[in-house]
Model the fold of this input.
Amino acid sequence: MISIPSPSQRPPALIGTSPPTLRLQEQVLHASRTHSHLLIVGATGTAKSSVAHAVWAGRGGSEPQALLSCLACDPSQHEQQLFGDGEDPGLVEAARGGVLHITHVDQLSLAAQRRLAAALPSLDLQLIASSRRAPEEAGGKAFAPELVARFGAPVELAPLSERSQDLPALIALYIAELAVAARGPMRLHPDAMAALTAYPWPGNVRELASVIQHALLCTEGPEIQLRDLPAAIQGARPQSEEPEVLDLRVLEQRAIQRALQRTGGCMAQAARLLGIGRATIYRKLAANPNIGELGN
Done:
């Protein structure tokens, strides 16, 4: 039976109902069912490794799983890590019948990429690779075309800034998981929730988890307050959908109105505030008498 993890077991990249998340859930389900090779692309903190693990779990969660982090060893050792050296059978053999996950695949040596691409048709395994860069972004020096051809279209993980619809569910998940381990059930003050949902989250779900953990350490009661959040998040404000663009004449009129209001209608003082001559204000008033009416 093929299934993706239940909501309580899903990785953060699969939590929520936003369009990018629903699309990702379908892609994980498809990859689990078909055992197709997969390239996962996403910015730092988008939980790429947990998506790979979800595909493995969707296959049943009992098959072999092997991991190669391309940053954990020198590129000259990549082929040996994958294919062994006689004494050690290597990760390809360890993943036989299951999943081989390669992180930072754009750092995998080109020789290892080409050898793996050539061997894949005869290997009984599903390759899941992850990278911060898509092949077209990395140019021709990071990805071997032979390996890229083994993947379908990359699975792109949306940044958290494009998953605002998922934030309440993610926040609730992290509070529930982290609070139980730390101090028991917790609540979130509405002001804190407003700030969390307004913040753009450049560090994605990894940053969100860190912030919730920080807040749980700072709060003294059963409720996370706005003051328990980092200063940068406390000051977050919702962004307007479309910034207002005003005609320069409208801005000029408003400036004169405000100057006249502050000076009680005194033309000379208003001119000094605006850094213009008194004659200029009279000329503007003659062109638009409504300015003077609003200023009085």
